[in-house]
Design a protein that fits this description.
Order of helices and strands: HHHHHHHHH
Largest sheet: none
Radius of gyration: 21 Å
Strand content: under 5%
Helix content: over 70%
Oligomer: single chain
Shape: elongated
Number of helices: 9
Number of domains: 2
Number of strands: 0
Length: 135
């Protein structure tokens, strides 16, 4: 299998060791959570506001950008932050998808902890812990 995929180039076609492959793998994990959060925000939206905008002659685009999006912005921000945290935490998927070309910051930290102890990795870890405690 390895010889077949490396000689034929099939591995790059399926996204192995590419940024697109990393993005697709992390999207598969995070999109369901983001979808649920945004749908919850949409379910809490007062439908009368949308009906009022429709009655005043707003187009679909105007209603989406001027009425719906501002009312669900906290749900969108929450979904984006949760997706970022879930993607940051999933080092295992990144280790399986990448080898040399697409190196993410969590993978770089993993390699630094596994191969050699680098003071920059320790400093970055302390900064991330401080940010986590403050937030």
């Amino acid at each position: 299998y390895f010889l077949l995929t490396s000689v034929s180039g099939i591995s790059s076609f399926f996204g192995y060791d590419t940024w697109l492959g990393v993005a697709m793998a992390h999207s598969v994990m995070t999109v369901p959570f983001a979808t649920v959060l945004i749908l919850v925000s949409l379910s809490q939206l007062d439908r009368r506001i949308d009906l009022a905008a429709r009655g005043l002659g707003a187009s679909v685009w105007e209603r989406a950008t001027r009425v719906i999006m501002p009312n669900i912005k906290f749900g969108i921000v929450t979904a984006a932050l949760l997706s970022f945290v879930l993607s940051w935490e999933e080092i295992g998927v990144t280790l399986f998808i990448t080898s040399v070309n697409a190196i993410t910051l969590p993978r770089l930290m993993w390699m630094g902890l596994r191969d050699n102890i680098d003071p920059a990795i320790a400093a970055l870890s302390v900064i991330l812990i401080i940010i986590t405690v403050l937030v």
